[in-house]
Design a protein that fits this description.
Elements: E1 6-7, E2 13-14, H1 21-40, H2 46-68, H3 82-93, H4 105-128, H5 134-145, H6 162-203, H7 208-213
Antiparallel strand pairs: 1-2
The structure holds protoporphyrin IX containing FE (HEM) (2 copies).
């Protein structure tokens, strides 16, 4: 649970240092991966899929850490509470910002929304690629490039049938959800960065610093 505030140098009360290495590394790796997959990689290309799988692994590890991790990283330290989030925003814009041991209630809602988008994007990515590993996809692409199309034929030799149509329909729907969730996530990430800037200004300290160094500046 929330750590008590500790006395700093000169007797001033300073908040605890909140972010352990797992939170920090997973945060920046996920942020870099989202930017790479949104802006740099070829959609559906092998790098895109590799990075997507890395995101899935990072998200899985971070969510397990939310149950067994350090006090501030646990879900119990930042429960989703829309009423508290609205109250927090009124306080923030009313000049009554205050410290929280983990994510503040508004940030908490944003964090859960970003995680939900990440989960949706990776799950639909897996549906579109038939959950084939990036290694298998690379091998199939190499075989097709070399003129061997047999890798794309189903092992049981099924022809066109209703099952194939359903599969195609599911793939198409997954692609649409993938695109919408990816776009929504990027909008939320921009709002998230704006929120970090506003909150940093209101609290008079840089919130990005502890997310990089794990420490808050001692006052
Ligand atoms: C951080 C995670 C990801 C982001 C931000 C992301 C983003 C995107 C975007 C913006 C598109 C283009 C959508 C369009 O305009 O139609 C796309 C397409 C695609 N993505 Fe992802 N994606 C991610 C993860 C994944 C994963 C995990 C997989 C597969 C395991 C995947 C497979 C695909 C495929 C197959 C396409 C369709 C390409 C096509 O239409 O030919 N993506 N992705
Ligand atoms: C696509 C880009 C990004 C995504 C998806 C993202 C997502 C997240 C998530 C999920 C968390 C919660 C971390 C956890 O508890 O494990 C978080 C926290 C945080 N992020 Fe990001 N982030 C992104 C970009 C950025 C950038 C560019 C910055 C810096 C300007 C930033 C600064 C922070 C900070 C300071 C926190 C902690 C907020 C607090 O004190 O409550 N993020 N972010």
């Amino acid at each position: 649970m929330a750590q008590a505030q500790a006395p700093g140098q000169g007797g001033t009360v300073v908040p605890p240092d909140p972010w352990d290495p797992l939170v920090r590394i997973s945060h920046w790796a996920i942020a870099a991966a989202v930017i790479a997959n949104y802006l740099l990689t070829k959609p559906g290309g092998i790098w895109h899929v590799w990075i997507g799988w890395a995101v899935l692994a990072l998200l899985g590890i971070r969510l397990i850490w939310g149950i067994i991790g350090t006090a501030e990283a646990r879900f119990s330290a930042f429960p989703p509470n829309p009423r508290a989030a609205v109250r927090h925003l009124f306080d923030l814009f009313g000049g009554r910002a205050r410290e929280h041991p983990s994510h503040n209630p508004a940030a908490a809602i944003m964090v859960y929304a970003l995680w939900a988008c990440l989960a949706t994007v990776t799950a639909t990515g897996l549906v579109m690629t038939g959950a084939k590993s990036p290694v298998t996809i690379a091998e199939e692409k190499a075989a097709v490039a070399a003129g061997d199309w047999s890798v794309l034929v189903k092992p049981d030799g099924e022809g066109e049938n209703e099952g194939d149509d359903n599969e195609r329909g599911l793939g198409k729907a997954a692609g649409e959800v993938h695109e919408v969730a990816a776009n929504l996530m990027v909008v939320l990430a921009l709002l998230h960065v704006a929120g970090v800037a506003v909150e940093s200004r209101a609290l008079g300290r840089n919130l990005v610093r502890p997310m990089i160094l794990g420490r808050r500046r001692r006052r």
